[in-house]
Automatic annotation (TrEMBL):
Keyword Transmembrane appears in the UniProt entry: yes
Coiled coil (residue ranges): none
Compartments, record wording: Membrane
Membrane topology classification: Multi-pass membrane protein
Keywords, in A-Z order: Membrane, Transmembrane, Transmembrane helix
Name of this chain's protein: Amino acid permease
Predominant place of localization: membrane
Membrane-crossing residue ranges in chain numbering: 21-41, 56-79, 100-124, 130-155, 167-187, 207-230, 242-265, 292-317, 338-358, 370-390, 402-421, 427-447
Length: 456
């Protein structure tokens, strides 16, 4: 999910301020690095549990690549026509006004960004629990602990250097290659028994729509990648190629690793696993292999969690700076040069979301259910904003225009609407809680407007 800074709306930056410094290769590497993350080691099991057949399972991953490409092309028009560090916040504000953008800013703190932290923390917890299992609550305890540790590190302004980030990213890619090689060359092909084959329909507990919600979570990041569209050399030609090639690469990588999982474990075993990569490596190399991949995935998750905590606190700080009702969040610690209050509040909300796992069967799935409806609702608004802004500002220069307009953005909007519907109708208590938290934003909006009137 992309990082936004609400205060950025205060500055209408123009195209003249943006340098075209990124080559085609730079853009491809950046997009692939942003999208491929620790989620690919966890979400395949949930997608498998919501797929009625191997063919449907693989179709979901192909569909994720297609939807991601369509969405990225839509974002490319918005970001080149209205370049601004505010991202979604800025587009929503220009198209729908301050009230709707306030609700989006509130959802960033309470649902979207903190939900991302909790989801990644659960990936960390699930794989670390394979190595050091201390009971049924291992995953929840490890997830909460890593959020506390990384929040404390950021509060002290101890940063992971770029070299460390690159090293961990290399470890992440290495983990994917290790799983694929182990699955294809060191394990026998899975041969389901009659009992396993007959149980496939009972294992599938959801729907194709819900499977797509989890697939597109794993593809998450292309919307942030589209923000570099105004910085690429040769303009629209380079951006279009970069988007197409990078998402093609990502789709192939995801298909390859999922084919490997299915080849070794089978759809049923995948659907019942909390750590599919560890299960595969156990078949290939025994307990040592299982623990090795657990370490690699845990390291990968730490990198993603740290980056999300760091950027999330900055947007939370800007929320406090821009809206008086959140004023305490806009305090900057001059001694450590960090937004201390924002870090603490963000960490507490993430811990609260992690604790949802105590009330449900699977914390990872519950937190995704919590974030998905809100995320897809605002994604839908961004899609609609394409049509609104074309009508409101027809004379604005658009260096990149969406191919096959209006068919392409219509497909994007319909997809978002379908995933919004699926994330509400085919999920549990998590979705209702997420929607409820978003609706509390109307109460906060009332007090924000009241306080603003008193100061003017």
């Amino acid at each position: 999910m992309e990082n936004i800074t609400p205060s950025a709306v205060q500055k209408e930056s123009g195209q003249s301020n943006i340098k075209n410094s990124l080559s085609l290769n730079d853009a491809i590497v950046l997009i692939v690095g942003l999208v491929i993350g620790a989620g690919i080691f966890r979400t395949p099991s949930v997608v498998a549990a919501n797929s009625d057949s191997p063919q449907l399972f693989l179709l979901a991953w192909v569909g994720g690549g297609i939807v991601s490409l369509i969405g990225a092309l839509c974002y490319a028009e918005l970001t080149t026509a209205f370049p601004n560090a505010g991202g979604d916040y800025y587009f929503i504000r220009k198209a729908f006004g301050k009230k709707v953008s306030f609700l989006f800013a509130w959802s960033r703190l309470s649902v979207i960004q903190t939900g991302s932290i909790a989801i990644l923390a659960y990936v960390f917890g699930d794989y670390l629990a394979v190595i050091f299992n201390i009971g049924t609550l291992s995953s929840i305890l490890y997830a909460g602990l890593i959020v506390i540790i990384l929040t404390a590190i950021n509060l002290a302004n101890i940063r992971f250097g770029t070299l460390t980030q690159k090293l961990f990213t290399t470890v992440e890619v290495g983990g994917i290659l290790l799983v694929v090689i182990a699955g294809l060359f060191f394990t026998p092909e899975n041969t389901p028994t009659i009992a396993e084959t007959s149980s496939s329909s009972s294992l599938s507990s959801g729907s194709f729509g819900l499977a797509m919600v989890f697939v597109l979570l794993t593809f998450g990041g292309w919307n942030e990648a589209a923000y570099i569209s105004a910085e690429t050399q040769s303009g629209t030609r380079t951006m279009a190629k970069a988007l197409f090639i990078s998402i093609l690469i990502i789709t192939v990588v995801y298909l390859l690793i999922n084919l490997t999982f299915m080849h070794v474990l089978g759809l049923d075993n995948m659907g019942s696993s909390d750590a599919v990569a560890s299960d595969l490596m156990f078949k290939a190399f025994g307990d040592t292999g299982s623990k090795l991949i657990g370490v690699l995935v845990a390291i990968s998750a730490v990198t993603s969690i740290n980056a999300t905590i760091f950027t999330g606190a900055r947007s939370t700080y800007a929320l406090g700076r821009d809206y008086s009702i959140f004023e305490p969040l806009g305090r900057w610690n001059s001694r450590t040069s960090v937004p201390s209050t924002a870090f603490i509040v963000q960490g507490l909300v993430a811990l609260l979301l992690i604790s949802l796992g105590l009330l449900t069967r699977d914390g990872f799935e519950t937190v995704i259910e919590y974030t998905a409806p809100v995320f897809w609702f605002f994604f839908l608004l961004v899609g609609i904003s394409i049509f609104i802004l074309r009508k409101k500002e027809p004379n604005t220069k658009r260096p990149f225009t969406i191919p096959l307009y209006p068919i392409t953005p219509i497909i994007f909007c319909l997809t978002c609407a379908y995933l919004l519907y699926s994330s509400v109708m085919h999920t549990g208590i998590g979705a209702l809680v997420g929607i409820g938290v978003l609706l509390t934003g109307f109460i906060l909006l009332y007090f924000q407007n009241k306080k603003q009137k008193q100061t003017t």
